Amino acid sequence: MRLAHNLFAGAAIAAAAAMAVSVPAQAKVEGDTIILGAAVSKTGKYATNGKHTINGYNLAVELINAKGGVKVGGKSYKLKIVYYDDESTPARGAQLAERLISQDGVKYLLGPYSSGLTKAIAPVTEKHKIPMVEANGASRSLFTQGYKYLFAVLSTSEQYLASAITLLAERAQAMGKKPGDMKIALAFENDPFSQDVRAGVLEDAKKYGMKIVIDDKLPPELNDMTATLRKVKVVKPDLLVVSGHSKGAALAIRQLAAAKVNVPMLAMTHCDSAQVIKKYNKAAEYTLCASQWAPSLTYKDAVFGSASDFAATFEKKFGYAPPYQSAESAAAVLVFADAFQRAGAFDVAKVRDALSATDMQTFYGNVKFDPTGKNIAKPMVLFQVQDGQYKVVAPTKWASSKIRHPTPPWSRRK
Amino acid sequence: MIDNLILLLENPVAFVDLAINGVLIGAIFVLVAYGMALVWGVMNIINICQGEFVILGGFVAFYFSKWGINPMLGVAAAFVLLLIVGWILYRLVIFRIVDRDLFTSILATFGISILLSQTMNEIFSADVEIARHGLGTWSLFDGRITLEQIKLAAFALAMVIGLALVIYMKNSRAGQAIRATAQNARAARIMGIDTNAVYARTYALNAAICGAAGALVAMIFTIQAYGGLAFTVRGFLVVIVAGLGNLPGVIIAGLSLGAAEQVASFVFGLEYQLAFVFGMLVLIVIYRQIRLGFRRQYLR
Amino acid sequence: MSQTARIQKPRFNAQTWIILAGIAIIGSVAPFVEPTLVGQMTVFWIMVLLSYTWDTMGGQMGYNSFGNVVFFGIGMYVTAAIQVGLYTDLGTYTAAKGGIKLTLTLGQYFTGLAIGLVAAGLAGFLAALLIGSGILGLRGHYFAIGSLALGIFVAELASGWELIGAGSGLVPPLYPGVESARSLWLYFGCFALAGITFLVLQWVYSRRFGLALNAIRDDEDKAEAMGLHTTRYKTIAWAISGIFLGVCGGLAGNFFQFIDPRDTAFSGATYGVWMVLMVVLGGKGTFWGPLIGALLFHVFKELFWSYLLGLQYIALGLLVVVIVVFFPEGIVGWFRERFPHWFGERVDPPPEATAADPVREPAE
Predict the structure, then answer these.
(1) Domain hosting residue B130, numbered range
(2) For residue range B10-64, what is the model confidence (pLDDT) as tens digits?
(3) N or C of chain A: less Cβ packing under 10 Å?
């Protein structure tokens, strides 16, 4: 009678195995469609920025297709993206990249959101020799491993807040103080991206001899940063730097205002994707925000037109102003399309070589990759929230307004 | 770490500031923990989806603020909405696991918590949201101590809710039925109490308390579809420390957890905030074991 | 509580061996038949490993642990740290600003991996002994709670430790050889480990030691009164599963290629709970249950991910509720309840309750 039991077990295993196998397979190019693959966070802690990323990708694909598609070898092809949801977890991201490549037969990958996920996926694409153009992994640790199939259209993390430190040094001199007397407080999320931004800030601060007085890490499940802000209140730094994706930005501004913590200068990342102006109005004023891109920049391309055209198209379609995450994601698709056209073939090695030879202008900025795959042709900009708008205040070349500094204490702010 | 400690010792006012804020925040933990202790004590269920109830309540306040209604009213609305949600959940799932062991209840409510947080992600998106309340901040001692009015209001409200619960439990027929069921469900049934209805009421009440707490959270911190876990674990810790059916214990433990957590994150750094909470939990559980070990007894 | 009288025949009879041989053959041929699915199948064997090692505590001994993922994560970190640390400075390699690149020869790679895996097994064993002697005196639910908290506590500590990359994670060295070879040896590594684990655990269960575990599950007080040193048995049982979990973690870390402290290594909310669910789904303390549970869970999960994009976790949450609420005895348990003779068991009609659940807690 044990036979029945064992047979039952065998049957269950066989049935389930058959189910697992019957997963659809797709080719890299089907008819006149080029298939790109991407594992992006639709759920989990990066879901907000994952949405911005997907919107950027989709808008670019839509516009490229509407304008005649990609011309390869005299024939016109449409683009299509196969998405999976990586759930904001690296292990899942790596598995899905594996799946896109070996099961679905996708030969060209777009990047996920966040450095951590990119870090998890890059070894997979590398070992399969599949080119990936990513737009949201800025950590320098991605570019020291000699990856040959990884291309990033964005500037790396250490540049995010470098201009904030420079600004602080300039302002110190303008006020007759030495840059070396400046005190900086750091609050960075404990993830690959923010920690690399922190490493960059530390290097820059060292250059000027500035002193780091607080160095806290924010946990990913952050919901209260009172303790750090109380420290800020006590040691009175000249600059507070916060980097913790959208949640860190939203929480920092709320709690700074609520606890009336005065800092002469506040710099952070991700304020536009956290929509801090819409959320806080006046309380968000004076905040400096690192951005990969601004609608006021003077770049343009054939698909979107100028940077402000992109912003207008995006807002019309999705109902909110594009954060830079969407802009850089759209640019990644443009880079891919350009590489296909120059390669003139779908051979993966040729496309990879065409990608590495990229030298183009997009609405998002110039794109040119160095041998490690990072984009060295575009600057970072620094916004300041001024009268309810993001104004570029640094670097000088792109600045549209002067910085307002120091931030007055809360008692004198309306 | 040492630097932080010295900093704190040099600035006793900052310490007081931190502790006061911690205690005020602790009121939120008290609410969550009280609901948890209620369900645990009466139904023998460890409810892992407390945090999701909190976040759901937070979204009510968020929408009130978005529609231009005072989010303080959202506290009441969240209470009512979650009362309904809790009741529906009981009728659909929870009643099937009341008689099972705690382990089953952990797994089942874990499933519900995934379900709720992911559904919220689908409906509200994963954006970080806040409810604007328009209350100000009182500054004392030249701004060295700041009291946010909203935190005070939340604290007061939490205490009022707590007090109301005590009165409800002590004096109303329904509350007495709940207590009777907690003491001995079988005897309660014999005495004519519809224990199933009592369980439904208890579970719905718990969800409602969490919802009200959540509305306060949306006004003090930020809310996000996946942010529930932080509240579940803190509620859990408070219940473990205070024990079941011990409201004064829950209040004291919750408020001190709030303060201790703030001081600990000041000293160790914010990244160890959760590690601190869980380290405490492990230590307390082991401590209880050792203490009971001397008496040759064990915990069930 | 009245326990149904149940006589179990020895588990390894001819038929069992035939089935096992069948699985071995299918498992060995499968990666060549469906080369595109090798990655999926590797994950499947990792899942099988997780469920059988969890079953030692949860099924055989009745101690529901949410902390087993700790040994999995420790194995992952130990292996990767040794693989890197043998040839370069670990702290420089993991620096947040972008560490140095590490290029290994095949020989170096496998030396590092071998030493790393052995160390991972050892680390898992020692960690389980150490932690076990601390919290295994806890009974029942307090143990579950303590182990749950422990898992998260360790995750938080790991994400604060800069030497192993803190929150930025750790990338094990890239395999210097051909990719198709890598995925094959990883597959066979996990497959073989699953096989060994299964056989060793079944052998352990068939000894006096296994009886002691079952005795603890059925009534710990009586077991203690009979002179069993229960805490010692519990700790050793945990340490045995710790060995296999450690090695499994070492292989898994190399398979995933990126170790994140919270989301990969000490991921209580995914692997930590999944291993519990798989066993519950299959049937706690049963011979085939963990395997069937792992298979069904894995297949369901992959199907959700393929066809329910964005909603997969809602589906998974529903699945969890359905498993727990409707299949508390698991699939094998469900069949055993209805067709006990399939299982070579003779059931005396019990005086009251009909349930044949060996792990049900005493009524409070």
Answers:
(1) 2-271
(2) 778 888 888 888 999 899 999 999 999 989 888 889 898 999 999 999 999 999 9
(3) C
Interface contact flag, B226 A251, Cβ < 8 Å: no
* Chain C residues with beta carbon closer than 8 angstroms to that of A58: none
pLDDT band with cut points at 50, 70 and 90 for residue C362 = very low
In Å, how far are B87, B98, B185, C248 from B189, measured between CA atoms?
20, 15, 6, 50
pTM: 0.85
User: For the segment A311-347, what is each residue's pLDDT rounded down to a tens digit?
Assistant: 999 999 998 889 889 999 999 999 999 999 998 888 8
Which among A352, A358, A353, A354 is positioned nearest to A376, based on CA atoms? Answer: A358
What is the structure's pLDDT at B116? 92
The continuous run of DSSP H or E covering B57 comes out as helix B50-66
Looking up residue B154, the CATH number of its domain turns out to be 1.10.3470
Complex prediction ipTM: 0.81
On the 0-12 / 13-18 / 19+ scale of CB atoms within 10 A, C207 is: exposed
Q: Which of residues 66-105 of A touch C (CB under 8 A)?
A: 83-85, 87-92, 94-96, 98-99, 102-103
Query: B281 vs C320: CB contact, 8 Å cut-off?
Result: no
Residue B294 lies in a domain: no
Does residue A340 contact residue A72 with C-beta atoms inside 8 Å?
yes
Tokens of A123: 């070894």
What is the model's pLDDT at position B44?
87
Distance from CA of B270 to the nearest CA of A (A): 6
Say what angle helices B247-268 and B149-171 make with each other, to 10 degrees.
150
Q: Domains plus CATH for chain A?
A: 29-155+302-368 (3.40.50.2300), 159-291+380-412 (3.40.50.2300)
Residues of chain C neighbouring A125 (CB-CB closer than 8 A): none
pLDDT digits (tens, 9 = 90+) for C225-250: 888 888 888 999 999 999 999 999 99
- Chain C contacts of A103, Cβ < 8 Å? 36-37, 40
What is the DSSP code (8-state) at residue C360? P
Question: CB-CB: which of B25, B130, B274 is closest to A250?
Answer: B130
Domain count, chain B: 1
CA distance B286 to chain C (A): 7
CB contact under 8 A, B279 and C153: yes
Contacts of C137 in chain B (CB under 8 A): 289, 293, 298
What distance in Å separates the CA atoms of residue C282 and residue C50, rounded to the nearest whole number?
A: 13
Q: How confident is the model at residue C349 (pLDDT cuts 50, 70, 90)?
A: low
**Which chains share 3+ C-beta pairs under 8 angstroms with C?**
A, B
What domains lie within chain C, and their CATH numbers? 38-343 (1.10.3470)
Residue B288 lies in a domain: no
